[in-house]
Specification:
Elements lengths: L6 E8 L6 H6 L3 E3 L3 E2 L10 H11 L4 E2 L4 H14 E8 L7 H10 L3 H4 L2 E5 L4 H16 L4 H11 L4 E5 L4 H5 L8 H9 L2 E8 L2 E9 L4 H12 L6 E6 L4 H13 L3 E7 L2 H7 L4 E6 L1
Parallel strand pairs: 1-2, 1-5, 5-6, 10-11
Antiparallel strand pairs: 3-4, 7-8, 7-12, 8-9, 10-12
Length: 287
Amino acid sequence: MDTSARRKIGIVTDEASNLSEDFALKHDIEVAKYPVWFPDEDEEIKDTKTLYQRMRELKKTAKTSAPPPLRFKKAYKRSLEKFDKVLVILLFKGWSGTFDSATQARNQMPAQEQERIEIFDTHLASVAEGLVVWKAQELINEGKGLAEILEILEEFRNSVRLFGIIEDLTWLVQGGRLRQPWATPALLLQKAGVRPAIGIVGGQIKTTGLKFSGKDRISVILKELKKVSRKGKLRIAVAHADLCEESLSRLKQGIGDLNAELLFVSQLTALVGSNTGPGTILVAYHY
C-alpha cells in the first residue's frame, strides 16, 4: 500500500473489550478473537449468541484461551497496511495470557514494523476495557499524537468503573469458579433473591458484594446507575449474555431516563461469559 495513503494511528484490541461490531468496522479496528470451545467438541464456537444458547441446551460451561500470537500478528499486519502507527489496547495482563501473546506477536514482526506498534495495558477488562478503546478512538479522531494519547489513557483508565449481576451462580459452580464451602450458601441466597454484584478489583472481575434483586436484575442495575449519576453525566457501555429483548429495552430506556450517554451495547464475549453464564449483565461507565 502507498504509505502516503495510510492514516496516522489505528487500533488493535482483544475480543474481551466487547466493542460493538459497527464501531470496530467504522474505524477499522482489528479485534483478536479468543478461541472458545466445549471440552468434548473439536470445533471452535464463532458466535457469542450461539455460545449462550448452547450453554443453556447442554447445561455446560465452555472453555477459552488467550488469542494465539498468530491472530495478533495477522491483526497487526492488516492494521499496519492502513496506519502509520498501531495502538494495541488490551485487558489487564495479570488476568490472562493475552498481553503476553500480543507481545510475542509484535516481537515476531520485522524490526521496522515492531517500532510502529505500541501495546497498552488498560488494567481493566470487558466493557471497561472497551471504554478505553472508545476513548482512544475519540482522541485519534481529534488528531492527537500517540504520545499524548497514551498519557491521557494512563489517567483515563483510572476513572472507568464496572459493575454487573450474574443471573445464575450454577455456572460458576460448574466451571469451578465457586467451590465448597461457599457454593451451597451462595446458591441458597440466590433462591432468596440475593445475588453477588461483580466489579473490577486489581484489574480482575470479581464479586464485590451482595444485591437483593429477586428476579429483577434490571432494576438493581438502574438503581446503581441512578446513585452514581448524581456525581455527573455518565457515559455508559453495556455487555450482556443473551439478554431477552424486553429486558434489554428496559435497560436502555432506564439509562435514557437518567440523561446518560449510552455509547454501545454488545453481546458479552466468552472470556467472561463462558464462566458467568447466560443472563449476565455488565455495565461500565465514566463521567
